[in-house]
Amino acid sequence: MNNLIIETQGLTKTYRTGNLDVPVLKGIDLKVERGEILSLMGPSGCGKTTLMNVLGGLDCPTSGSVRVNGNPLECMNDDELTKFRLREIGFVFQFFNLIPTLTAAENVQLPLILAGEERWEVMDRCSSVLEQVGLSDKLGRMPYELSGGERQRVAVARALANNPSIVLADEPTGNLDSKTAANLIDLFNVINDENGQTFVLVTHDSEVAESADRIIYMRDGIIVDEMKEVTRRQTMEIEDSRGKSQILKTLDELDSLYLYNQINEELYRRLKAEYISHFCEIEINMNMSEIGRELSQRSSSYAGRAPSA
Asked: What number of CA atoms fall less than 13 Å from residue 181's CA on the CB side?
C-alpha cells in the first residue's frame, strides 16, 4: 500500500489580474506521508495558503498534478471537488469561521448534514467529536458565549466531523494567546495519535512549526528548505541567515542603482546605512546566541567536578 497521502508534481498556480499574470506557485513537488504532521512556513505572500487551498480542493492548479489520498484533483469538476472536500478534508481557519446563529453542536453537525448522513449518525458523531476536543458540556452554547480557544476547538470538531483523511489548518493559532495556542497544538497531536489523521499546518509561529514531524519552508512560490524535527532555535537561525543574504543582495542592487545614476547620493547613503545597521543587528544576535551556547556547554562540562584539595 502506498503510504503517501499527498503528492504534487510540477504544481503551479497563476492568477490573472487584468492583462497581468501573477505566478504564485512555481513548480511545487511535495510528498506527505499518511499520518504525518507537516508545517508550512514562510513569509507572507510566499504561496503557503494558496498551496493549502489547492491541496484542499478549494482552488485549481494552473498546471501540474495533485493527488490527495489517491484522488487526482486536477481532473475533477466542481461537483466532484465538493464531494471530495466533504469526504476527505477537514478545514481549520484562523478566525474560526463558525456560523454565529448556530450553536456549537449545530456548527459541527453542518458538514455531516451536507454529506447526507442519517440523523442518528449526525447526533452521535457530533457528540463524539465535541467530547474529543473537551467541549461535551458546551453543545448548546452560541459562538459568542465561547472563549477564543473554545471557538477554535469547535472549529476543530467541525473539521473532524466527517472523519477526514487530512486536516488542513491555516494559521490555526493566529488569533489565540500563547497558552491557548499551545493547548490547541497539543490537541492536534493527541488527535493525530488517536485517529491517525494527517495534519498540514500553515503558520508563521516557529513554536507551532516545531511541534510538527517536518517543516517545509517556502519563499516566492517554491520550496526552499525541508527540515525534520528541527528546534525553534535552528528555525530562527535559518531565518536570520536568509535575512543576511537578502540584505547583501539588496546592498549590491543599491550599488548598481547609484552607479547608473538611478538614485541620488543622499538616498543611496541613507538606505545603505539602514541596511548595514540591520545586517549588524542580525550578526550580533547570532553571535550572542553562539556565545550563550558555548557558555552553557562549558558550564555543563564543569558541573559535578569536585574542587581540588
From this structure: 19
**Band of residue 296 on the pLDDT scale cut at 50, 70, 90:** low
**More confident of the two residues 139 and 309:** 139
Containing 13, the helix (H) or strand (E) segment is strand 4-17
d(CA 69, CA 136): 31
Decide: residue 292, CB within 10 A, 0-12 exposed, 13-18 middle, 19+ buried. exposed
Q: How many CA atoms lie within 13 A of 54 on its CB side?
A: 29
Q: Helices 232-259 & 265-302, crossing angle to 10 degrees?
A: 160
Task: Indicate the domain borders of the chain.
Answer: 34-62+76-230, 235-301
Class of CATH domain 34-62+76-230: alpha beta
Q: What is the Cα–Cα distance from 108 to 58, expressed in whole angstroms?
A: 20
CA distance 185 to 173: 8
Cβ neighbors of 28 (< 8 A, separation 6 or more) are 8, 10, 11, 12, 47, 51, 64, 221, 222, 223
Q: In one letter, which amino acid is 173?
A: T
> Which helix or strand (DSSP H or E) is residue 95 part of?
none
CB 58 within 8 A of CB 49: no
Opening angle at CA 3, ends 62 and 112, nearest 5: 70
Distance CA 84, CA 55 (A): 11
Q: What does the pLDDT look like over 39-91, one tens digit per residue?
A: 999 888 899 999 999 999 999 999 999 999 989 998 899 999 988 998 899 99
